[in-house]
Amino acid sequence: MVQLKKRIHKLIDRIDNLERVRKLYIFLLIFSIVFLLVILNYSYISTFKDVKVLYAQYTKDRIIDIKKDFLEDSVNNMINNIEQTQAEIMEINRNRINRATKVIGEYYSSKKEDFLEKTIDYFETGTIKEAFDIFILDRSTDKILYQNNIGDIEDIRNIYDYIDDLKKNSITYNEDDYGKYYIFYGVTEDYIKHATTESIKKRIHSDSFENDAYIWINEIVNYDGGENYAIRLIHPNLKDTEGTYLSTNTQDIKGNYPYLTELNGIKGNGEIYFTYFFKKKTCEEVAEKLTYAKLYKKYDWIIAMGVYFDDIQPYIDEISEDGDKAISKMTTLVGILSLGLIFIGILIVLILEHWYYQNSNKELREELNIDELTKAFNRRAATKKLEETFYLFKRYNNIYTVIIFDIDDFKEINDTYGHDVGDSVLRNLVEIINKSTRKTDYLYRWGGEEFLLVCEGLKEENLDSFTDKILKDVENFQYESQGEKYHITISIGASYFDKDDEDFLSVVKRADMALYNSKKEGKNRATLNI
Q1: Of 283 and 362, which is predicted with more confidence?
Q2: Which of 164, 304, 368, 502 is the most exposed place for a label (fewest CB within 10 A)?
Q3: Where are the alpha helices (DSSP H) in 111-158?
């Protein structure tokens, strides 16, 4: 009996020991699982924080790249506007010279006795007096009878040398003898530059961009730098300082030398991106600014535009906030999942991150490729499309038509009704073109009031009917502003890829030349340039 009791106690002790071992095992298993979950949870949190930091930096870099493209496109568009303005001013003054020749000839043919008086009165007209360099000489006495925009000539023997110099400096002129009178009148490059400067100044002062952005122009006087190396020519943020001299020794609040940095970059590459601190346009706050500057060598102009970095920060903060929310969700999810669901949780995290990345990048791509004003595709998107179509043409010989068009006399609409009405006309034109073209055609805003259309499969024999429909649809639409009704027209240039083209720029140049011919032939028409 005693032996039995001892045996029973031993069995009970063994059972108790086994239970303690089992409990210890369960505890260790649970502890291991919990510890593993904690480690995994911590690893996930750390990983997501790193992803957030990296993605925020990536987003910042992409936004800055987009802003750089915007700055460069804006400056290049301004250079195109400058060259277009020059061409228009030169054409106006060539017409003035031709008209003056005709008028003076009529004066001489009608009444020779008051010819000189009437001719001088004509030259005293406001626009002619401002634009023309004029010289009237009595051949019989070598006496100067009238001069305009010409300095004093002390030695009469230098008159003809001076006239030769005037001819060399004039972009257009006329000289002729009317009896004993020798008359010279011309327009110099200096006047063209002056008139171009005044026209561009009005435009820049009236242009409006978001987030305190604006374009300004400095004129280099001395490429070696130093005091008075340049003149602040046009600056909408500091209008009262236009015409003052600049120095490369000027520093910003952080000790940077922005003018020196800009000059060195211009001299080295003709263009530069750089940063410095400058006062904002709408307030007295000084902030860091990203700037793009490019040299317009013909006039020694530095044309620049900048955006402030603190305008970029809200985009980055928004991305960071979204990242924090995602981390919180992932942490909660991982914390409540069992060991068997850990791998599923990892898969979900990867899927969500992939979705998050794709959707965020989709939004950036849309911002990158859509013109904000008209909602048409922008020039960057056009460049990508042209590269793609040129590749398809070269490989498969597909037919692509490249059409460039712009609004005739668009400047008059802006000058008459204001830039808001001009913007409305641009938006409405995009709607009309989209309705007039096929679903397979792609419309892009090429710059200003100029647009580019890429049409696949449009054969040459169908081009006239296609462009005629566009011209009529645009012309038939009636606008109304300030109680006045009006219509607009467009001029069109078109071309096709050629087997000898080395890149898509060749077809763009041909289409652009065709557009120029449409303008030259009277506007509101389409021209094909093969």
Answers
A1: 283
A2: 502
A3: 115-123, 126-131
414: three-class secondary structure by DSSP: helix
For residue 404, is it left (φ>0), alpha (ψ between -120 and 50) or beta? beta
> How far apart, in Å, are the Cα atoms of 110 and each of 98, 122, 123, 171?
19, 15, 18, 30
Q: Evaluate whether 173 touches 166 at the Cβ level (below 8 Å).
A: yes
Say how far apart CA 324 and CA 305 lie, in whole Å: 35
Q: Measured between alpha carbons, how far is 385 from 262 in angstroms, rounded to an integer?
A: 34
Q: What is the Cα–Cα distance from 30 to 41, expressed in whole angstroms?
A: 16
- Max CA separation in the chain (angstroms): 164
Would residue 150 be called left, alpha or beta, if left means φ above 0 and alpha means ψ between -120 and 50 degrees?
A: beta
Query: How many other CB atoms sit within 10 Å of the CB of residue 299?
Result: 19
What are the structure tokens assigned to 488, written together?
Answer: 């607009």
- The answer to whether residues 148 and 133 touch, using CB atoms and an 8 Å cutoff, is yes
Angle between helices 313-336 and 2-110 (to 10 degrees): 160
CA distance 247 to 229: 6
**Tens digits of residue pLDDT in 479-511:** 988 888 999 999 999 999 999 999 999 999 999
Residue 479: exposed, middle, or buried by beta-carbon count in 10 A (0-12, 13-18, 19+)? middle
Q: For 379-528, which CATH class?
A: alpha beta
Q: Residue 364: is its pLDDT beyond 90?
A: no
- Residues of the chain by 3-state class (helix, strand, coil), percent to 5: 60, 20, 20
Note the pTM of the prediction, 2 decimals. Answer: 0.52
- How many residues does the structure list for the chain? 530
- Give the residue from 93, 75, 78 showing the smallest Cα distance to 190: 93
**Range list of H helices, 270-341:** 313-336
CATH number of 194-311: 3.30.450.20
Q: Which two tokens stand for residue 511?
A: 């289409």
At 175, the pLDDT band (50, 70, 90 cuts) reads very high
Neighbours of 449 (CB within 10 A): 21
Other CB atoms within a 10 A radius of the CB of residue 430 amount to 19
CB within 8 Å of 376: residues ≥ 6 apart: 370, 430, 443, 444, 445, 451
What gap in Å lies between CA 277 and CA 288, rounded to an integer?
A: 4
Spatial contact of 217 and 233, defined as CB atoms under 8 Å apart: yes
